[in-house]
From TrEMBL:
Record-given protein name: YgjV family protein
Record key words, sorted: Membrane, Transmembrane, Transmembrane helix
InterPro entries: Uncharacterised_HI1736/YgjV (IPR019629)
Membrane spanning stretches: 29-45, 51-69
UniProt source species: Vibrio sinensis
Gene3D superfamilies: 1.20.1280.290
Length: 74
């Protein structure tokens, strides 16, 4: 098993783990990490559908985490 394959497994585990969270902040943080790992994985295997989809989902997670953080400090 090479490093690229390990990265793909790590990304899969993070996304799956995120879906077990009850706390939405923890879910979004773990999902963001998983998506970021999948984006890197997609770049390494030259798969643009993986890169674009997970890059978009990572941005959605950042958007909602920022929105929740701003609402908390107001």
């Amino acid at each position: 098993m090479d490093m690229v394959e390990l990265l793909g497994y790590a990304a899969s585990i993070m996304v799956a783990l995120s879906l077990t969270m009850k706390d939405i902040v923890k879910l979004r943080v773990l999902n963001f990490i998983g998506c970021a790992l999948f984006t890197a994985y997609g770049l390494m295997i030259d798969s643009w559908p993986v890169v674009l989809t997970n890059g978009f989902i990572a941005c959605v997670n950042v958007y909602f985490l920022t929105k929740m953080w701003r609402a908390k400090i107001e």
